[in-house]
Design brief:
By secondary structure, the protein is α+β, with helices and mostly antiparallel strands. The chain has helices spanning 2-12, 17-24, 28-35, 42-52, 56-59, 65-80, 116-121, and strands spanning 84-95, 108-115, 129-135, 148-152, 163-168, 171-179, 185-188, 197-199, 207-217. A nine-stranded mixed sheet has the order 2-1-3-4-9-5-6-7-8.
Length: 220
């Protein structure tokens, strides 16, 4: 925790809270909680790292020799694969159901290689993609419980019709985005048994788009 707080402070420097929030896409109120000692989810930490173009290991304070060796291994895997990219698979789940608060996990669980051209054809930026799990049945039949989802962290806009991983007051969710003309954002479950969650313009700062779901894998 000490390492993360120190590095977060180094990134922020003399930036005002509002400016730092705009750059990272994380609400200022949430960032304040981190300064008080709370820890972000692994995807939020990755979002901050991407915004400042630093490594996730560095931001989380995990810069020892073991982590450097792990980063080297992932780099070598990517180079050996040529036109393939080894996407990190984090041991973290977004809830396709009711919200789940998720904290930073120590390590990448494994890697899964994808062809770069395949990801680009999906509209994704390969170097900004990561893999996490989906838990729950609110997005069935589209995304089943236990599916692995590829999330593009470069696509953080509120776009009507996208399926995105979102953070709402610390809850990590997988939902379809529906945007109204009055500025209201609806988080829609493909499973009709779940009610639509509405976020009005007065609460929009409580919503953070972590990234767009561009692909998912499931067991047959």
């Amino acid at each position: 925790m000490t390492g993360f707080l120190a590095r977060l402070g180094a990134l922020k420097g003399n930036m005002k809270d509002a400016e730092f929030a705009r750059k990272t896409g994380v609400p200022a109120s949430t960032l304040k909680q981190y300064e008080k000692g709370s820890l972000p989810s692994i995807v939020i930490a990755g979002q901050i790292a991407d915004a400042f173009e630093v490594s996730l290991d560095w931001l989380c304070g995990r810069s020892d020799e073991r982590q450097r060796e792990r980063s080297t291994q992932l780099h070598e895997i990517g180079n050996a694969a040529g036109d393939f990219i080894a996407l990190p698979f984090f041991d973290v789940e977004a809830s396709a159901g009711h919200g789940a608060v998720v904290a930073i996990h120590e390590d990448v669980r494994s890697v899964v290689s994808f062809e770069r051209a395949f990801l680009r054809n999906l509209g994704a930026v390969p170097d900004h993609c990561k893999i996490i799990g989906a838990r729950g049945d609110s997005m069935t039949p589209t995304i089943p419980d236990g599916a692995l989802i590829v999330v593009d962290h470069s696509q953080r806009e509120v776009v009507h019709g996208w399926i995105s991983v979102v953070n709402v007051c610390g809850d990590l969710l997988v939902k379809r985005i529906r945007r109204r003309l009055d500025g209201t954002v609806e988080l829609v479950s493909d499973n009709a048994m779940y009610p639509v969650e509405t976020i009005g313009p007065d609460r929009i700062d409580q919503l953070t788009i972590i990234g767009r779901v561009v692909y998912f894998c499931r067991a047959p």
